[in-house]
Amino acid sequence: MGRRGRRYRGRMGPDRPEHRVNHRIRFPTIRVVAEDGSVIGVMTPDEGRALAREQGLDLVEVAPRARPPVCRILDYGKFKYERSKAESKSKSSKPSVKTVKLRPKTDDHDLETKLGRARKFLKRGDKVRLVMRMRGRERAYPQRWVQMMREHFDEHLSDLATVTDRPSAQGRAISMLVEPTS
Questions:
Q1: Helices then strands (H, E): number in the chain?
Q2: pLDDT digits over 81-129, tens only?
Q3: What single string gives the DSSP state of each residue in 48-89?
Q4: Out of 3.40.50.620, 3.30.110.10, 3.40.50.2300, 1.10.10.60, which CATH number does the structure's domain 97-180 have?
Q5: Percent helix, strand, coil in the chain (nearest 5)?
Q6: I want to staple 167 with a disulfide (CB 3.0 to 4.6 A). Which of 22, 23, 30, 176 is the partner?
Q7: CA triplet 30, 32, 34: central angle to 5 degrees?
Q8: pTM of the shown model
């Protein structure tokens, strides 16, 4: 069977909506819940749609795996909007870890630019992982580069952040994790 013949057995396909709404509900009986959360009772989908239509709302399947499936009478557009708003809020409130890559031979101006970017991330509330990548003979002197990272941190970022994970060698790189002070 080729790619076009692939089917989604019982699961939601890639282009299907997350919730079944109104005429897409195909169960013989459903449990209907009112907009305020009170249970109306078990009935056919046609009766549930009629109740929703009287109120100018939609019948939305909220628990398809329950027996009988639970459907709620509500404004589907408002429901989708509030759900997307909550998802975006939960994504934006999590501090992420940003990586700033350095090299032992990074010039002073480039170093200031990269550490300025790290300052911006720290002010925004993100954690920053400083990574010093080493090549060739640079790998023979890891302590020199660890000392260099500490000096750069003390010089540029110590007023905004504290070291969470001290500099440590990991293969061809030395990394250090800093997070903003509260």
A1: 4, 8
A2: 988 888 887 776 667 899 999 898 888 899 899 989 999 998 988 899 9
A3: HHHHHHHHT-EEEEEETTSSSPEEEEE-HHHHHHHHHHHHHH
A4: 3.30.110.10
A5: 40, 30, 30
A6: 176
A7: 170
A8: 0.51
